[in-house]
């Protein structure tokens, strides 16, 4: 298998970076869901400057309250372990995204798939750009939330919304070509 992209398709490095990103995002979604499950409605940030509720978000634990020992989180080591995993996955996603951008700058993309219309090419380019921006903004704002304050929470949440919209368009285009057009577009990234 060739390492670099060429006229026949994506190379091993591009494919590996793509699927490592997908795996890290799926893991991040699961961990984030488990953190939300344990959050008990206390919010997501550190909660600085929020009066009595200050420090009751993820960054500071659960405000000194003892975990009752029930549920999935207790079996996995609680919120602190999941928060560490969440941060590690976020940093991993950020690093892999930077690597993807550097790799993309140093190796040309293969030609567009012949089955893509001009409109689909524009949509693919726009969603890909949006995904890259979100893959930089989400972890950067998440790390800032943890280290500084939760003032960036609206941007962090908005980047998630934008990410899922762009992802739905990206995956939708692939599914359309795979199931409706049957032109094996997905095969280019496998």
Largest sheet: none
Secondary-structure class: mainly alpha
Overall geometry: elongated
* Radius of gyration, whole Å: 20 Å
Quote the beta fraction: under 5%
Helices and strands, in N-to-C order?
HHHHH
Low-confidence stretches: 43-73
Organism: Cellulosimicrobium protaetiae
GO molecular function: electron transfer activity; heme binding; metal ion binding
Transmembrane segments: 12-35, 81-103, 130-148, 154-175
Main location: membrane
Short summary:
The protein contains five helices and no strands. The chain is an all-alpha fold. The termini are close together.
What labels describe this entry?
single chain; 0% strand
Structure, described:
With 190 residues, this protein is an all-alpha fold. It has 2 domains: 74 residues; 76 residues. It is 64% helix and 0% strand. The chain has 5 helices and no strands. Helix 1 runs antiparallel to helix 3 and helix 3 packs across helix 4. The longest helix is centred in the last third of the chain and has 30 residues. About 16% of the residues have low confidence.
List the helices and strands and how they pair.
Elements: H1 12-39, H2 71-76, H3 78-106, H4 118-147, H5 153-180
Helix pairs in contact: 1-3, 3-4, 4-5
Domain Cytochrome b561 bacterial/Ni-hydrogenase: 10-190
InterPro entries: Cyt_b561_bac/Ni-Hgenase, Cytochrome_b561_oxidase, Di-haem_cyt_TM
Organism: Cellulosimicrobium protaetiae
């Amino acid at each position: 298998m060739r390492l670099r992209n060429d006229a026949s398709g994506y190379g091993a490095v591009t494919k590996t970076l793509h699927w490592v990103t997908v795996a890290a995002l799926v893991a991040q979604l699961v961990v984030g869901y488990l953190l939300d499950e344990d959050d008990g409605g206390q919010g997501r940030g550190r909660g600085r400057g929020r009066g009595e509720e200050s420090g009751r978000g993820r960054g500071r634990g659960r405000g000194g309250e003892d975990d009752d020992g029930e549920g999935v989180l207790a079996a996995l080591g609680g919120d602190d372990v999941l928060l560490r995993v969440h941060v590690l996955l976020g940093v991993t996603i950020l690093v892999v995204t930077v690597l993807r951008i550097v790799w993309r700058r140093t190796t040309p993309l293969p030609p567009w798939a012949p089955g893509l219309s001009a409109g689909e090419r524009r949509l693919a380019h726009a969603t890909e750009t949006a995904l890259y921006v979100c893959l930089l903004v989400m972890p950067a704002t998440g790390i800032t939330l943890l280290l500084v304050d939760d003032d960036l929470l609206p941007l962090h949440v908005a980047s998630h919304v934008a990410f899922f919209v762009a992802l739905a368009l990206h995956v939708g285009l692939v599914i359309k070509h795979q199931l409706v057009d049957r032109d094996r577009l997905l095969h280019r990234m496998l």
